[in-house]
Write a structure and sequence with these properties.
The chain has about 325 residues and is an alpha+beta fold. The protein is built from nine helices and eleven strands. A hairpin with a 2-residue loop joins strand 7 and strand 8.
Length: about 325
């Protein structure tokens, strides 16, 4: 006989009594029943009992819980954990590192804007399960439905805006608008989901048009720079010119007002003088003569008054002149 062949005919099984077999089966069944009756709910979860597939009782709180074996089924729903859905990209967790997955998800991220341009939009939706019953029983395939709803809302919001708004200044408005509309849609479908945040992870033009897009952005930046410089020069020159023009106008108005007032004053004075002359011509003529002489004579310097009937002129000593000369000589002698 071959040495590798084992002869089982010589092996004898232990002689077990039926009672021992029944006890062993009962113990094994008891262990299975106990293991199927006890379950653990984590601190961030609640347990939903489904008895023969039907919702049976309110959510069970965290801790050690019991259920009917072979009849009840427990579904654990993370109500305290923040969940997220990624669109246009995926992250793969390898150990303690998070690696960006370079897979192709252009079907999710490629979108048409309102001005008929194309943008690649990658975003994240962070949400929580606020109603476990609605989350499990009101919508079939709730995760897939939620992804389809999110993508539809995002495409609608992107389609209402230009590509410049999507890529530059309109990102925050897009995030808030998508959050509000997506929450309204989740409430309408009774998904039991509360939206915490919508984050646009990355927004870029498609790779084939990136060089052209960069050139356009550079030209727009140069245009904006030139416009700002022109506005600065305008703000520097125009207000000064306007101020000088206003100053000239005010000076002209002041000069015109002065001339008008002077003319009106001269006209009033002449009229008053004319009225006085009509009432008493001799007195007025005499007064005018004296006033004129009072203005003219002080400007003539030395004056000599003689009588019209005088036959000769007596020379007068210039006492004031001599007095001045005498004082000068005295100071020189000293």
């Amino acid at each position: 006989m071959d040495k590798d062949v084992i002869d089982l005919s010589n092996i004898k099984l232990p002689n077990l009594s039926p009672r021992i077999i029944v006890i062993a089966i009962a113990v094994l069944l008891g262990v299975v029943v106990v293991l199927d009756s006890v379950y653990q709910v984590q601190p961030e979860e609640v347990g939903i009992i489904r008895r023969l597939g039907r919702y049976n009782a309110p959510p069970r709180p965290p801790g050690l819980q019991f259920k009917l074996p072979f009849i009840d089924t427990v579904v654990k729903v993370p109500v305290q954990r923040q969940l997220k859905q990624e669109f246009g990209f995926r992250t793969q967790t390898a150990g303690q590192r998070t690696i960006y997955s370079p897979q192709d998800f252009l079907g999710e991220s490629l979108m048409l804007t309102g001005d008929l341009n194309v943008a690649v939009v990658e975003w994240i939706v962070q949400y929580r399960v606020s109603d476990p019953y609605k989350y499990l029983f009101r919508v079939r395939n709730v995760e897939e439905t939620f992804r389809a709803m999110t993508e539809a809302v995002m495409r609608g919001v992107i389609g209402d805006r230009t590509v410049t708004e999507v890529l530059t200044v309109g990102r925050q408005e897009i995030e808030s608008t998508v959050k509000v509309q997506l929450q309204e849609l989740c409430n309408q479908y009774e998904t039991g989901i509360t939206i915490d945040q919508v984050v646009l992870q990355d927004v870029n033009p498609p790779d084939p048009v990136k060089p052209s897009w960069d050139q356009v952005n550079q030209a727009q930046q140069q245009r904006d720079q030139l416009i700002n410089e022109a506005k600065g020069e305008y703000n520097r020159v125009i207000p000064r010119a306007e101020g000088e023009a206003l100053q000239t106008i005010l000076q002209a108005q002041g000069y015109a007002l002065d001339r008008v007032n002077r003319a009106q004053g001269d006209a009033t004075r002449f009229k008053a003088l004319y009225d006085a002359y009509r009432r008493s011509p001799q007195v007025t003529r005499r007064r005018m003569y004296l006033e004129t002489m009072a203005k003219v004579l002080p400007k003539m310097g030395g004056k000599l008054y003689i009588d019209k009937d005088a036959q000769g002129v007596m020379p007068l000593l210039p006492l004031e002149t001599l007095r001045g000369l005498t004082g000068s000589s005295r100071q020189g002698g000293e």
